[in-house]
Amino acid sequence: MAQVSINSDLGEWGFSTDAGERARLLQSPCVDSDPKSEGEASPESLSRGTTSSFGAIFIVVNACLGAGLLNFPAAFSTAGGVAAGITLQMGMLVFIISGLVILAYCSQASNERTYQEVVWAVCGKLTGVLCEVSIAIYTFGTCIAFLIIIGDQQDKIIAVLAKEPEGAGGSPWYTDRKFTISLTAFLFILPLSIPREIGFQNFLSVVGTWYVTAIVIIKYIWPDKEMTPGDILTRPASWMAVFNAMPTICFGFQCHVSSVPIFNSMRQPEVKTWGGVVTAAMVIALAVYMGTGICGFLTFGASVDPDVLLSYPSNDVAVAVARAFIILSVLTSYSILHFCGRAVVEGLWLRYQEMPVEEDVGREQRRRVLQTVVWFLLTLLLALFIPDIGKVISVIGGLAACFIFVFPGLCLIQAKLSEMEEVKPASWWALVSYGVLLVTLGAFIFGQTTANAVFVDLLA
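Request: output the structure for the sequence above.
Response:
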Protein backbone atom coordinates (compact mmCIF):
# COMPACT_ATOMS: atom_id res chain seq x y z
CA MET A 1 0.00 0.00 0.00
CA ALA A 2 1.14 3.53 -0.68
CA GLN A 3 2.49 5.58 2.18
CA VAL A 4 0.15 8.39 3.24
CA SER A 5 0.97 11.19 5.66
CA ILE A 6 -1.93 11.38 8.08
CA ASN A 7 -2.22 14.29 10.52
CA SER A 8 1.47 13.99 11.23
CA ASP A 9 1.71 17.46 12.79
CA LEU A 10 0.62 16.97 16.38
CA GLY A 11 1.31 20.58 17.22
CA GLU A 12 -1.94 21.67 15.60
CA TRP A 13 -3.83 20.12 18.53
CA GLY A 14 -2.25 22.49 21.03
CA PHE A 15 -0.73 19.72 23.19
CA SER A 16 2.85 18.96 24.08
CA THR A 17 4.17 16.26 21.76
CA ASP A 18 5.65 14.26 24.64
CA ALA A 19 2.89 14.90 27.18
CA GLY A 20 1.80 11.68 28.78
CA GLU A 21 4.75 9.66 27.45
CA ARG A 22 2.71 8.98 24.33
CA ALA A 23 5.13 6.51 22.78
CA ARG A 24 5.28 4.43 25.96
CA LEU A 25 1.59 4.04 26.63
CA LEU A 26 0.21 0.57 26.25
CA GLN A 27 3.48 -0.95 25.11
CA SER A 28 2.99 -4.68 25.29
CA PRO A 29 5.21 -6.19 28.01
CA CYS A 30 6.13 -8.91 25.54
CA VAL A 31 7.27 -6.47 22.84
CA ASP A 32 10.83 -5.27 22.64
CA SER A 33 10.38 -1.82 21.14
CA ASP A 34 11.66 1.61 22.13
CA PRO A 35 9.86 4.93 21.81
CA LYS A 36 10.89 6.92 18.79
CA SER A 37 12.49 10.31 19.15
CA GLU A 38 11.40 13.45 17.32
CA GLY A 39 13.84 12.82 14.54
CA GLU A 40 12.62 9.32 13.82
CA ALA A 41 9.66 9.86 11.56
CA SER A 42 10.53 7.76 8.55
CA PRO A 43 9.26 4.27 7.80
CA GLU A 44 12.83 3.01 8.01
CA SER A 45 12.98 3.99 11.69
CA LEU A 46 10.04 1.73 12.42
CA SER A 47 11.74 -1.35 11.00
CA ARG A 48 14.41 -1.68 13.69
CA GLY A 49 12.58 -4.32 15.70
CA THR A 50 14.03 -7.69 16.49
CA THR A 51 10.93 -9.90 16.43
CA SER A 52 10.70 -12.51 13.69
CA SER A 53 7.43 -13.39 11.97
CA PHE A 54 7.24 -16.63 13.96
CA GLY A 55 7.90 -14.74 17.19
CA ALA A 56 5.21 -12.21 16.29
CA ILE A 57 2.71 -15.03 15.80
CA PHE A 58 3.47 -16.32 19.30
CA ILE A 59 3.16 -12.84 20.83
CA VAL A 60 -0.19 -12.19 19.11
CA VAL A 61 -1.50 -15.57 20.28
CA ASN A 62 -0.27 -14.76 23.79
CA ALA A 63 -2.06 -11.38 23.67
CA CYS A 64 -5.25 -12.99 22.40
CA LEU A 65 -5.60 -16.03 24.62
CA GLY A 66 -6.54 -15.50 28.23
CA ALA A 67 -9.23 -15.81 30.86
CA GLY A 68 -11.91 -15.11 28.24
CA LEU A 69 -11.46 -18.75 27.25
CA LEU A 70 -13.59 -19.78 30.24
CA ASN A 71 -16.68 -18.09 28.79
CA PHE A 72 -16.76 -19.70 25.34
CA PRO A 73 -18.87 -22.77 26.26
CA ALA A 74 -21.52 -20.38 27.61
CA ALA A 75 -21.21 -18.35 24.40
CA PHE A 76 -22.02 -21.48 22.36
CA SER A 77 -25.03 -22.05 24.59
CA THR A 78 -26.16 -18.44 24.15
CA ALA A 79 -25.68 -18.60 20.38
CA GLY A 80 -27.88 -21.70 20.16
CA GLY A 81 -25.55 -24.65 19.74
CA VAL A 82 -22.40 -25.81 18.03
CA ALA A 83 -23.37 -24.93 14.46
CA ALA A 84 -24.42 -21.39 15.35
CA GLY A 85 -21.33 -20.85 17.52
CA ILE A 86 -18.90 -22.03 14.83
CA THR A 87 -20.63 -19.99 12.12
CA LEU A 88 -20.57 -16.87 14.29
CA GLN A 89 -16.87 -17.21 15.15
CA MET A 90 -15.84 -17.91 11.56
CA GLY A 91 -17.81 -14.93 10.31
CA MET A 92 -16.41 -12.57 12.93
CA LEU A 93 -12.84 -13.80 12.36
CA VAL A 94 -12.78 -12.15 8.92
CA PHE A 95 -13.53 -8.75 10.45
CA ILE A 96 -11.15 -9.36 13.37
CA ILE A 97 -8.22 -10.09 11.05
CA SER A 98 -9.03 -7.18 8.75
CA GLY A 99 -9.08 -4.82 11.75
CA LEU A 100 -5.56 -5.92 12.69
CA VAL A 101 -4.34 -5.32 9.13
CA ILE A 102 -5.98 -1.88 8.99
CA LEU A 103 -4.25 -0.87 12.22
CA ALA A 104 -0.87 -1.94 10.82
CA TYR A 105 -1.46 0.04 7.62
CA CYS A 106 -2.45 3.16 9.55
CA SER A 107 0.50 2.73 11.93
CA GLN A 108 2.87 2.59 8.97
CA ALA A 109 1.17 5.54 7.26
CA SER A 110 1.14 7.77 10.35
CA ASN A 111 4.49 6.63 11.81
CA GLU A 112 2.91 5.94 15.19
CA ARG A 113 3.70 2.97 17.42
CA THR A 114 0.76 2.44 19.78
CA TYR A 115 -2.97 1.92 19.27
CA GLN A 116 -4.17 5.20 20.72
CA GLU A 117 -1.39 7.14 18.98
CA VAL A 118 -2.59 5.77 15.65
CA VAL A 119 -6.17 6.80 16.39
CA TRP A 120 -4.99 10.26 17.51
CA ALA A 121 -2.91 10.75 14.37
CA VAL A 122 -5.43 9.39 11.89
CA CYS A 123 -8.78 10.47 13.31
CA GLY A 124 -7.90 13.59 15.29
CA LYS A 125 -8.11 14.84 18.85
CA LEU A 126 -11.74 14.07 19.72
CA THR A 127 -11.64 10.45 18.55
CA GLY A 128 -8.20 10.02 20.12
CA VAL A 129 -9.42 11.12 23.54
CA LEU A 130 -12.50 8.89 23.16
CA CYS A 131 -10.20 5.97 22.33
CA GLU A 132 -8.03 6.56 25.41
CA VAL A 133 -11.06 6.85 27.69
CA SER A 134 -12.40 3.59 26.20
CA ILE A 135 -9.09 1.85 26.86
CA ALA A 136 -9.12 3.05 30.48
CA ILE A 137 -12.71 1.82 31.02
CA TYR A 138 -11.98 -1.48 29.27
CA THR A 139 -8.89 -2.23 31.35
CA PHE A 140 -10.76 -1.20 34.52
CA GLY A 141 -13.65 -3.57 33.71
CA THR A 142 -11.27 -6.38 32.82
CA CYS A 143 -9.52 -5.99 36.18
CA ILE A 144 -12.92 -6.41 37.88
CA ALA A 145 -13.53 -9.57 35.83
CA PHE A 146 -10.13 -10.95 36.86
CA LEU A 147 -10.90 -10.49 40.56
CA ILE A 148 -14.26 -12.26 40.11
CA ILE A 149 -12.48 -15.14 38.37
CA ILE A 150 -10.04 -15.41 41.28
CA GLY A 151 -12.96 -15.60 43.72
CA ASP A 152 -14.79 -18.21 41.63
CA GLN A 153 -11.78 -20.51 41.42
CA GLN A 154 -10.85 -20.04 45.08
CA ASP A 155 -14.38 -21.01 46.15
CA LYS A 156 -13.96 -24.38 44.47
CA ILE A 157 -10.45 -24.98 45.80
CA ILE A 158 -11.37 -23.98 49.37
CA ALA A 159 -14.41 -26.27 49.30
CA VAL A 160 -12.06 -29.22 48.75
CA LEU A 161 -9.44 -28.10 51.28
CA ALA A 162 -12.07 -27.44 53.94
CA LYS A 163 -13.80 -30.76 53.10
CA GLU A 164 -17.19 -29.09 53.30
CA PRO A 165 -20.03 -28.96 50.78
CA GLU A 166 -20.01 -25.78 48.72
CA GLY A 167 -22.38 -23.16 50.06
CA ALA A 168 -22.77 -24.92 53.41
CA GLY A 169 -23.87 -22.70 56.27
CA GLY A 170 -21.66 -22.01 59.24
CA SER A 171 -18.39 -21.98 57.29
CA PRO A 172 -15.38 -20.35 59.02
CA TRP A 173 -14.95 -16.61 58.37
CA TYR A 174 -11.60 -17.17 56.66
CA THR A 175 -13.28 -19.20 53.89
CA ASP A 176 -15.71 -16.38 53.07
CA ARG A 177 -15.44 -15.33 49.41
CA LYS A 178 -15.05 -11.62 50.16
CA PHE A 179 -12.25 -12.29 52.62
CA THR A 180 -10.31 -14.64 50.31
CA ILE A 181 -10.54 -12.28 47.32
CA SER A 182 -9.46 -9.31 49.45
CA LEU A 183 -6.56 -11.22 51.03
CA THR A 184 -5.26 -12.43 47.67
CA ALA A 185 -5.61 -8.97 46.16
CA PHE A 186 -3.76 -7.17 48.95
CA LEU A 187 -0.98 -9.77 49.22
CA PHE A 188 -0.23 -10.29 45.54
CA ILE A 189 -2.02 -7.92 43.15
CA LEU A 190 -1.39 -4.58 44.87
CA PRO A 191 2.40 -5.07 45.26
CA LEU A 192 2.65 -6.11 41.59
CA SER A 193 0.66 -3.07 40.46
CA ILE A 194 2.53 -0.23 42.19
CA PRO A 195 5.91 -0.32 40.32
CA ARG A 196 6.37 2.10 37.44
CA GLU A 197 7.47 -0.58 35.00
CA ILE A 198 6.38 -4.17 34.39
CA GLY A 199 9.31 -6.50 34.99
CA PHE A 200 7.74 -9.83 34.06
CA GLN A 201 6.10 -11.55 31.10
CA ASN A 202 2.83 -13.38 31.46
CA PHE A 203 3.68 -16.79 29.99
CA LEU A 204 1.36 -18.36 32.56
CA SER A 205 -1.58 -17.23 30.44
CA VAL A 206 -0.38 -19.36 27.53
CA VAL A 207 0.29 -22.42 29.70
CA GLY A 208 -2.96 -21.99 31.60
CA THR A 209 -5.20 -21.58 28.56
CA TRP A 210 -3.72 -24.56 26.76
CA TYR A 211 -4.05 -26.68 29.88
CA VAL A 212 -7.68 -25.62 30.40
CA THR A 213 -8.47 -26.45 26.77
CA ALA A 214 -6.87 -29.88 27.12
CA ILE A 215 -8.82 -30.62 30.32
CA VAL A 216 -12.15 -29.53 28.81
CA ILE A 217 -11.57 -31.74 25.75
CA ILE A 218 -10.45 -34.73 27.83
CA LYS A 219 -13.40 -34.39 30.19
CA TYR A 220 -15.75 -34.38 27.21
CA ILE A 221 -14.19 -37.56 25.75
CA TRP A 222 -14.03 -39.31 29.15
CA PRO A 223 -16.71 -37.63 31.30
CA ASP A 224 -17.13 -38.26 35.00
CA LYS A 225 -20.25 -40.16 36.01
CA GLU A 226 -21.64 -37.32 38.16
CA MET A 227 -21.55 -34.86 35.24
CA THR A 228 -24.89 -34.88 33.42
CA PRO A 229 -25.43 -32.40 30.59
CA GLY A 230 -28.46 -30.17 30.31
CA ASP A 231 -30.36 -29.63 27.09
CA ILE A 232 -28.07 -29.65 24.04
CA LEU A 233 -29.40 -26.82 21.88
CA THR A 234 -29.25 -27.32 18.13
CA ARG A 235 -30.60 -23.99 16.94
CA PRO A 236 -30.83 -20.43 18.27
CA ALA A 237 -33.93 -19.47 20.24
CA SER A 238 -34.03 -16.27 18.15
CA TRP A 239 -31.78 -14.35 15.80
CA MET A 240 -31.02 -11.91 18.63
CA ALA A 241 -29.67 -14.81 20.72
CA VAL A 242 -26.82 -15.22 18.23
CA PHE A 243 -25.81 -11.58 18.62
CA ASN A 244 -25.84 -11.93 22.42
CA ALA A 245 -22.81 -14.22 22.08
CA MET A 246 -20.81 -11.59 20.19
CA PRO A 247 -19.45 -9.68 23.23
CA THR A 248 -17.87 -12.86 24.63
CA ILE A 249 -16.20 -13.57 21.28
CA CYS A 250 -14.97 -9.97 21.04
CA PHE A 251 -13.54 -10.16 24.56
CA GLY A 252 -11.75 -13.41 23.72
CA PHE A 253 -10.21 -12.25 20.42
CA GLN A 254 -9.40 -8.66 21.46
CA CYS A 255 -5.66 -8.23 20.97
CA HIS A 256 -5.92 -5.14 18.79
CA VAL A 257 -4.77 -2.64 21.42
CA SER A 258 -1.41 -4.41 21.76
CA SER A 259 -1.17 -5.28 18.05
CA VAL A 260 0.35 -1.95 16.95
CA PRO A 261 3.49 -2.17 19.14
CA ILE A 262 3.79 -5.85 18.17
CA PHE A 263 3.70 -4.88 14.48
CA ASN A 264 6.36 -2.21 14.99
CA SER A 265 8.59 -4.63 16.90
CA MET A 266 9.00 -6.84 13.81
CA ARG A 267 12.23 -6.93 11.81
CA GLN A 268 10.23 -6.20 8.68
CA PRO A 269 7.05 -4.36 9.67
CA GLU A 270 5.27 -4.74 6.35
CA VAL A 271 1.50 -4.90 6.02
CA LYS A 272 1.59 -7.97 3.76
CA THR A 273 3.82 -9.90 6.19
CA TRP A 274 1.66 -8.77 9.10
CA GLY A 275 -1.43 -10.10 7.34
CA GLY A 276 0.11 -13.57 7.32
CA VAL A 277 1.17 -13.25 10.96
CA VAL A 278 -2.25 -12.28 12.29
CA THR A 279 -4.05 -14.82 10.11
CA ALA A 280 -1.90 -17.63 11.50
CA ALA A 281 -2.28 -16.32 15.06
CA MET A 282 -6.07 -15.99 14.81
CA VAL A 283 -6.40 -19.50 13.37
CA ILE A 284 -4.46 -20.87 16.36
CA ALA A 285 -6.63 -18.87 18.77
CA LEU A 286 -9.75 -20.02 16.93
CA ALA A 287 -8.74 -23.66 17.35
CA VAL A 288 -8.21 -23.18 21.10
CA TYR A 289 -11.46 -21.29 21.61
CA MET A 290 -13.48 -23.69 19.48
CA GLY A 291 -12.03 -26.74 21.24
CA THR A 292 -12.98 -25.29 24.61
CA GLY A 293 -16.32 -23.91 23.47
CA ILE A 294 -17.57 -27.01 21.66
CA CYS A 295 -16.42 -29.60 24.19
CA GLY A 296 -17.45 -27.53 27.20
CA PHE A 297 -20.90 -26.90 25.74
CA LEU A 298 -21.46 -30.54 24.75
CA THR A 299 -20.35 -31.67 28.22
CA PHE A 300 -22.83 -29.52 30.13
CA GLY A 301 -25.32 -28.29 27.53
CA ALA A 302 -27.53 -25.34 28.39
CA SER A 303 -26.67 -25.75 32.10
CA VAL A 304 -23.02 -24.71 31.59
CA ASP A 305 -21.84 -21.90 33.88
CA PRO A 306 -20.56 -18.58 32.45
CA ASP A 307 -17.18 -19.77 33.79
CA VAL A 308 -16.92 -23.34 32.51
CA LEU A 309 -14.58 -24.48 35.30
CA LEU A 310 -17.35 -23.84 37.83
CA SER A 311 -19.41 -26.58 36.18
CA TYR A 312 -16.92 -29.29 37.14
CA PRO A 313 -16.88 -31.02 40.56
CA SER A 314 -14.71 -29.37 43.20
CA ASN A 315 -12.84 -32.60 44.02
CA ASP A 316 -11.55 -33.20 40.48
CA VAL A 317 -7.75 -32.97 40.80
CA ALA A 318 -7.05 -32.23 37.13
CA VAL A 319 -9.60 -29.42 37.11
CA ALA A 320 -8.19 -28.11 40.41
CA VAL A 321 -4.81 -27.75 38.71
CA ALA A 322 -6.53 -25.82 35.90
CA ARG A 323 -8.09 -23.53 38.50
CA ALA A 324 -4.67 -22.92 40.06
CA PHE A 325 -3.22 -22.07 36.63
CA ILE A 326 -6.03 -19.61 35.98
CA ILE A 327 -5.52 -17.92 39.35
CA LEU A 328 -1.78 -17.52 38.76
CA SER A 329 -2.41 -16.25 35.24
CA VAL A 330 -4.98 -13.71 36.38
CA LEU A 331 -2.78 -12.42 39.21
CA THR A 332 -0.18 -11.23 36.71
CA SER A 333 -2.71 -10.28 34.01
CA TYR A 334 -4.39 -7.85 36.41
CA SER A 335 -1.11 -6.00 36.90
CA ILE A 336 -0.47 -5.80 33.16
CA LEU A 337 -3.97 -4.49 32.42
CA HIS A 338 -3.73 -2.03 35.30
CA PHE A 339 -0.39 -0.77 33.96
CA CYS A 340 -2.01 -0.12 30.57
CA GLY A 341 -5.02 1.64 32.07
CA ARG A 342 -2.90 3.71 34.45
CA ALA A 343 -0.64 4.80 31.59
CA VAL A 344 -3.63 6.07 29.62
CA VAL A 345 -5.03 7.94 32.66
CA GLU A 346 -1.58 9.45 33.24
CA GLY A 347 -1.36 10.54 29.62
CA LEU A 348 -4.79 12.16 29.70
CA TRP A 349 -3.91 14.01 32.90
CA LEU A 350 -0.62 15.37 31.56
CA ARG A 351 -2.24 16.41 28.30
CA TYR A 352 -4.91 18.23 30.27
CA GLN A 353 -2.18 19.98 32.26
CA GLU A 354 -0.17 20.59 29.04
CA MET A 355 2.90 19.49 30.97
CA PRO A 356 5.90 17.61 29.49
CA VAL A 357 6.91 14.41 31.28
CA GLU A 358 10.35 15.66 32.30
CA GLU A 359 8.82 18.63 34.15
CA ASP A 360 6.59 16.38 36.23
CA VAL A 361 9.08 13.80 37.52
CA GLY A 362 8.90 14.94 41.12
CA ARG A 363 5.17 14.31 41.47
CA GLU A 364 5.01 11.20 39.29
CA GLN A 365 5.62 8.67 42.06
CA ARG A 366 3.08 10.20 44.44
CA ARG A 367 0.45 10.41 41.71
CA ARG A 368 1.21 6.85 40.53
CA VAL A 369 0.73 5.41 44.00
CA LEU A 370 -2.52 7.34 44.44
CA GLN A 371 -3.83 6.23 41.03
CA THR A 372 -2.90 2.62 41.76
CA VAL A 373 -4.53 2.51 45.19
CA VAL A 374 -7.75 4.16 43.98
CA TRP A 375 -7.92 1.86 40.93
CA PHE A 376 -7.23 -1.20 43.06
CA LEU A 377 -9.80 -0.39 45.76
CA LEU A 378 -12.56 0.46 43.27
CA THR A 379 -12.06 -2.73 41.25
CA LEU A 380 -11.92 -4.80 44.43
CA LEU A 381 -15.13 -3.32 45.85
CA LEU A 382 -17.01 -3.81 42.60
CA ALA A 383 -15.74 -7.39 42.27
CA LEU A 384 -16.95 -8.20 45.78
CA PHE A 385 -20.48 -7.05 45.00
CA ILE A 386 -20.79 -8.18 41.35
CA PRO A 387 -20.47 -11.97 41.59
CA ASP A 388 -21.80 -12.69 38.07
CA ILE A 389 -18.83 -12.86 35.70
CA GLY A 390 -21.20 -13.17 32.72
CA LYS A 391 -22.51 -9.61 33.11
CA VAL A 392 -19.03 -8.13 33.42
CA ILE A 393 -17.79 -10.02 30.35
CA SER A 394 -20.81 -8.79 28.40
CA VAL A 395 -20.09 -5.14 29.19
CA ILE A 396 -16.35 -5.22 28.51
CA GLY A 397 -17.02 -7.38 25.43
CA GLY A 398 -19.04 -4.48 24.05
CA LEU A 399 -16.06 -2.18 24.57
CA ALA A 400 -13.77 -4.78 22.96
CA ALA A 401 -15.99 -4.53 19.87
CA CYS A 402 -15.05 -0.85 19.65
CA PHE A 403 -11.32 -1.72 19.54
CA ILE A 404 -11.92 -4.50 16.99
CA PHE A 405 -14.42 -2.78 14.70
CA VAL A 406 -15.21 0.88 15.44
CA PHE A 407 -11.79 2.51 15.77
CA PRO A 408 -10.12 0.49 12.94
CA GLY A 409 -13.16 1.30 10.76
CA LEU A 410 -12.87 5.03 11.53
CA CYS A 411 -9.12 4.87 10.84
CA LEU A 412 -9.73 3.22 7.47
CA ILE A 413 -12.38 5.78 6.49
CA GLN A 414 -10.23 8.74 7.52
CA ALA A 415 -7.10 7.29 5.90
CA LYS A 416 -8.85 6.85 2.56
CA LEU A 417 -10.53 10.25 2.75
CA SER A 418 -7.15 11.87 3.35
CA GLU A 419 -5.81 10.50 0.05
CA MET A 420 -6.03 13.56 -2.15
CA GLU A 421 -5.08 12.05 -5.52
CA GLU A 422 -7.06 13.48 -8.39
CA VAL A 423 -7.82 10.00 -9.70
CA LYS A 424 -8.74 7.64 -6.89
CA PRO A 425 -8.17 3.88 -7.34
CA ALA A 426 -11.17 1.69 -8.08
CA SER A 427 -10.95 0.16 -4.62
CA TRP A 428 -11.32 3.56 -2.88
CA TRP A 429 -15.08 3.46 -2.43
CA ALA A 430 -14.98 -0.23 -1.55
CA LEU A 431 -12.50 0.39 1.26
CA VAL A 432 -14.47 3.37 2.59
CA SER A 433 -17.65 1.27 2.49
CA TYR A 434 -15.88 -1.53 4.36
CA GLY A 435 -14.79 0.95 7.00
CA VAL A 436 -18.40 2.08 7.39
CA LEU A 437 -19.44 -1.58 7.75
CA LEU A 438 -16.88 -2.13 10.52
CA VAL A 439 -18.04 0.96 12.41
CA THR A 440 -21.69 -0.04 12.05
CA LEU A 441 -21.06 -3.60 13.24
CA GLY A 442 -19.02 -2.47 16.23
CA ALA A 443 -21.56 0.20 17.16
CA PHE A 444 -24.36 -2.39 16.95
CA ILE A 445 -22.57 -4.82 19.29
CA PHE A 446 -21.66 -2.05 21.73
CA GLY A 447 -25.16 -0.57 21.66
CA GLN A 448 -26.86 -3.92 22.14
CA THR A 449 -24.53 -4.84 25.00
CA THR A 450 -25.06 -1.50 26.74
CA ALA A 451 -28.81 -1.75 26.32
CA ASN A 452 -28.86 -5.26 27.79
CA ALA A 453 -26.66 -4.26 30.72
CA VAL A 454 -28.75 -1.18 31.55
CA PHE A 455 -32.33 -2.11 30.72
CA VAL A 456 -32.62 -5.87 31.26
CA ASP A 457 -31.86 -5.64 34.99
CA LEU A 458 -34.17 -2.64 35.36
CA LEU A 459 -37.06 -4.47 33.69
CA ALA A 460 -36.37 -7.58 35.80
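The radius of gyration is 22 Å.
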